[in-house]
Amino acid sequence: MSTQTRASLQVDLAPHNPRELILRNPVIPASGCFGYGQEYSHVIDVQRLGAFCSKGITSQPRAGNPMPRITETPAGMLNAIGLQNPGIDAFIKKYPPIWEHWDVPAIVNFSADTVEEFAEMARKLDDVPGVAALEVNISCPNIHAGGFCFGWDARMSADVSRAVREATTLPVIIKLSPGAVDIAEIAAAVAEQGVDAISLINTLVGMSIDPVTRRSRIANTTGGLSGPAVKPVAVRQVYQVAQAVDIPIIGLGGIFGLNDALEFFMAGATAIEMGTVCFSHPVAPIQLIDDLQTWLDAQGCASIMDIVGVANPQFRAGKDS
Amino acid sequence: MAAVLGKASAPVREWTGEITANRTIMGDSYLVTFTMPEGLAQHIEPGHFVNVLPSGAGSFDPLLRRPYSIYGIDAAANTMTLLIRPYGRGGQWIVDQQPGQSLNVLGILGNHYEVAPRSSHLLMVAGGVGAAPLKMLSEQAVAQGKSVVYLLGARREDQLLDASELPHAVEYIVATEDGSAGHKGFVTELAANYLTWADQIFTCGPTPMMAALRNVILQHRFGKGPQVQISVERTMACGVGACLGCVVETKKGMKASCVDGPVFDMESVVWG
Ligand SMILES: Cc1cc2nc3c(=O)[nH]c(=O)nc-3n(C[C@H](O)[C@H](O)[C@H](O)COP(=O)(O)OP(=O)(O)OC[C@H]3O[C@@H](n4cnc5c(N)ncnc54)[C@H](O)[C@@H]3O)c2cc1C
Ligand SMILES: Cc1cc2nc3c(=O)[nH]c(=O)nc-3n(C[C@H](O)[C@H](O)[C@H](O)COP(=O)(O)O)c2cc1C
Ligand code: FES
Fold first, then answer.
1. Which of A25, A57, A107, B198 gives A9 a disulfide partner, CB atoms 3.0 to 4.6 angstroms apart?
2. Which of A25-29, A261-265, B123-127, B216-220 is the least confident region?
């Protein structure tokens, strides 16, 4: 009989922040794919997750885009939900009071139209009980820059990161947009602002046309591509970012099971998020926690950290802690 | 009369069901029967649906589950039957599975039709495979001693539901677009004859059919008229209210049709 102790799945996503973001495992359902946590709480044991990211909120309520909002694509899907949400004030009243009684940390995802609005929202969330960390979605248009996406410009990404950092002491995760020309440059500019972690990727802008109707299959014309189809792009970008920053990285994009997740860890991610898979396989995040444990034990690893960045010779992320 | 319909409340499980039967019906559709976990049957009501994975284990394509209404259940055998018309690769993959093979199913999803205790005359208006949830509803209503008129519209005779699928007590009347059986034309044209008789109307079918039914009802309506419950069809991803891909615009704002529906009061919906 082996007396070997089991590998530790614990990860620290905010090593320099006194408010801490230590997860008991590195598996996190992604924003927009897990509602506000409650939707899946009668389907899976939500409390076993490392954490979860809630649906993106904005300062004002939004009705979202017209239908159809989603369409299937080869090994993926396009979505243009349009950030339908009740607005930050109604959100704060409704969900964090529930999460306060949960074991699993809730990470609040949000976006805004201006740098000031990002800061304002972070300030409002700073001391709300039940909120463990913030994930800042910068894949949205800056209305003061002609609608150019914040996340595609290093200076604008840095401005948002600095403003949010100054507005809150909560652990702050900046979620990068894969549409940026030089993702490593953006990541470096963001990390310089003292944020705690970086997550990537958000969806890639895509389109699908129905030959019968001769129109886009999505009312909004374009949508965000997600699912297994985007995984190679995501792994490449995590790999590049892990060479450019020394803060923890949360990798996502098309993760369905163990082997997908291992690619991200080996590229340099300390934790992973799972989005689209939740629709096809709600049990996948829980299954992955078990599969990671079994795999790490079989490999004789002491910790998940043993494999983080092993495929990346210039890996820096998380190495300073 | 305008009862407020409930939200999804049945337990939700992801399970692997073994197919016990698969046969063709309505010309180009299939009745697929498979096992379900213990303890679910007693929660299933007419109008509920399940999301079926349209590809085998380890495959990512097609990716998203396909929603299908529950056509019937056999509580003794612990099986569920779906009526499936394949439109594309996902539906085709599901109906290609044979007895002994398995399906990955997520359910029980959605809210359900609600028959008011004092309603005794129920009118069902079905278009195509919209026949499915109304078949289960008819069975339940007849068992409770209610009178049911079941109207079904299809393109041709061979796409109609065989009368033997419905309880004997149901008055089954059909319409075909080509006139090969029953009334020649649309099923909604038949509905006008029963509007004063019906205490409640239940419908499921393509959106244009339900819009046409609404026009018929609005034209003939006097007084408050019967309450009409519709089951809407939207592209879905999660089926549990998490993605907001399936919304319906209602007078009370955007509602997720997978948890606040698929059954809505006809007049609660904003018609375009
Ligand atoms: C709550 C709910 C209950 C449903 N119940 C049933 C049911 O009991 N039986 C049943 O057969 N279907 C039912 N549907 C519809 C069913 O979900 C779709 O037909 C199915 O998802 C299509 O998958 P597919 O792979 O066959 O076609 P896809 O590959 O998704 O589509 C192929 C092509 O067919 C078109 N198409 C897809 N579905 C339809 C449709 N329903 N009508 C017309 N064109 C379509 C698409 O736009 C596309 O161009 C229900 C839908 C909902 C939301
Ligand atoms: C329906 C849907 C809604 C989404 N909503 C958000 C959102 O509100 N905020 C956000 O930052 N990302 C959102 N995303 C992006 C996901 O969180 C994730 O970054 C992306 O889907 C890639 O991961 P995946 O391939 O595992 O889904 C959404 C994705 C989908 C499919
Ligand atoms: S299908 Fe996801 S919210 Fe309805």
1. A25
2. B216-220
Interface touch B61/A75, C-beta < 8 Å: yes
Contact A81, A71 (CB under 8 A): no
* A318 pLDDT higher than 90: no
Give me the residue from A75, A76, A280 closest to B53, CB to CB. A280
pLDDT digits (tens, 9 = 90+) for A69-106: 999 999 999 999 999 999 999 999 999 999 999 999 99
Local structure of residue A13 (DSSP, 8 states): S
ipTM score assigned to the predicted complex: 0.93
Q: How far is the CA of A285 from the centre of ligand 2 (A)?
A: 15
Comparing CB atoms, the residue among B12, B237, B239 nearest residue A70 is B237
Distance from the Cα of A282 to chain B's closest Cα (Å) equals 7
Domains and CATH numbers, chain B: 6-111 (2.40.30.10), 113-231 (3.40.50.80)
Closest by CA to A267, choosing from A296, A302, A243, A292, is A243
Among the listed residues B223, B202, B207, the one whose alpha carbon sits nearest the alpha carbon of residue B131: B202
Cβ A30 under 6 angstroms from ligand 2:
yes
DSSP assignment string, B130-185: GHHHHHHHHHHHHHTT-EEEEEEEESSGGGSPPGGGS-TTSEEEEEETTSSSSEES
In the predicted model, is pLDDT for residue A52 greater than 90?
yes
Closest atom of ligand 2 to CA, residue A226 = 25
Give the pLDDT band of residue A319 (cuts 50, 70, 90). low
How large is the average pLDDT for residues B69-77? 96
Contacts with B245 from chain A: Cβ below 8 Å: 69-70, 79, 81
**Ligand 2 atom 5: residue of nearest CA:** A32
State how far the Cα of A210 lies from the Cα of B88, in Å rounded to an integer: 13
